[in-house]
Design goal:
The protein is α/β, with parallel strands linked by helices. The chain contains 9 helices and 12 strands.
């Protein structure tokens, strides 16, 4: 990885994001920059704000303070933050941010292929024939080209999640957000999903991943961002973080995953 990135290499800029639910502050002044081709793994104890941060990035949750820019364009608001984006502008911005949910969120009444094709055709108004060709290539990439005509109910959890990844990629997003993509899976099926994500990282697809899979985070990330109680506590390369965590909170967190901090 080169250190001297141009501004044009910056895909995601998160500046001072804060978020409260009722009286509980879930994110405290979180800032993070993600460059083109990076794979950022967000680590930290359950409830520390990782998933909320992802949901703020694509405006599924509206931050209380701070700003988010995707390839230089501010998310959710216009005119220096004075005017909220209308639904059409927001949906165009969201199209630049792929999202893979832990619960798959596939349309049960649509085939695998139609699930992947739906948003490029209806949101991006792209040509159906071209979208179909691209969707079949994406299903091939995730190893599901033979299942294109099946419906989600017939798929395993791992297959559903791989369809979810193909569906997110079909929009050709600037950045892919993955929220604990393996947490709802049977342990036997986790590997097939992680290997797809690993291949995307090798292709330098820009990703921000919330995960509890420490070994995977160590292998796949270009940077690890460790969060605790709504704060970014530590940012480091995976080698630094897993071998020599700089903060006591990170050290304590890693001791729960035997052997991974040495």
């Amino acid at each position: 990885m080169h250190e001297n990135f141009q501004t044009s290499d910056m895909v995601l800029q998160i500046n001072g994001i804060s978020k409260k639910f009722d009286e509980k502050t879930v994110l405290h002044d979180v800032s993070l920059q993600v460059k083109k081709g990076e794979t950022i793994c967000l680590l930290g104890p359950s409830g520390c704000g990782k998933s909320t941060l992802l949901r703020c990035i694509n405006w599924l949750e509206t931050p209380d303070a701070g700003s988010i820019h995707v390839t230089g364009v501010r998310m959710g608001v216009r005119d220096n933050g004075v005017v909220k984006m209308n639904d059409q502008d927001l949906s165009q911005m969201r199209a630049r941010i792929g999202m893979v949910f832990q619960s798959f969120a596939l349309w049960p009444h649509l085939s695998v292929l139609d699930n992947v094709m739906l948003s490029p055709i209806h949101v991006q108004k792209r040509d159906k024939k071209t979208v179909r060709e691209e969707a079949m290539l994406l299903l091939q990439k995730v190893g599901l080209q033979d299942h294109f005509a099946q419906f989600p109910a017939k798929l395993s959890g791992g297959q559903k999640q791989r369809v979810g990844i193909a569906r997110a990629l079909a929009m050709k997003p600037e950045v892919l957000l993955l929220d604990e993509p393996t947490s709802a899976l049977d342990p036997m099926l986790v590997g097939e999903v992680l290997s797809v994500i690993q291949s995307l990282a090798q292709e330098q697809v820009t990703m921000v991943i919330v995960t509890h899979e420490m070994q995977f985070a160590k292998q796949v990330s270009t940077r690890v961002v460790f969060m605790d109680q709504g704060h970014v506590v530590e940012t480091a390369t995976p080698d630094q973080f897993f071998s020599h965590p700089a903060t006591e909170k990170a050290q304590k967190f890693l001791t729960r995953f035997h052997g991974l901090n040495h």
